[in-house]
Amino acid sequence: MHLQVMFESFGGAKIDLDSVKVTYLEPQCRFDAAHKTICAERRHRYPDVELPLGEHMVRIDLKDSDGRIGSTSFVLKVAP
Hints:
The chain is 0% helix and 44% strand. By secondary structure, it is an all-beta fold. A hairpin with a 3-residue loop joins strand 3 (37-39) and strand 4.
């Protein structure tokens, strides 16, 4: 599958793209980090994500140009 995550900053701050960290909280999940792409539109792309069927917890951590740290977690549901 192709995983794409979008970010939105507030108050004139910019996302520090070097700080973006995507973590799969399930050991059976993996992605090809060599094909990760970050573009100026604040999109983080993983074109070669391989996930088995089921639910998978993902966490994203980042910070902005003002040094504020943000984090969110969500569940990816993979169905046949």
